[in-house]
Amino acid sequence: MSRLSYYMSSIPTILTQIENWPEISTILWRKQPVVRTRNGLKFKVRSFMDVWVVKETCLDRDYESDGTKIQDSFNHY
Asked: Please, what's the b/e burial string for 47-59 (b: 16 or more CB within 10 A of its CB; e: otherwise)?
């Protein structure tokens, strides 16, 4: 899958699972933007790539496919 198609296919997840998704567009000029997921997690992000890390790790749970479970109770921001 190309990078562009990957990022495009990620948009529905971001729109449906990140509570404050409209604020993501302000990341570039806000000092400490926070992404809030619909399940109550909050993360300070520095860039759009940080948003994708949150998406892959906490929403898609990509890293669990190899057998490493990520607990929902980990420390966050």
From this structure: eeeebbebbeebb
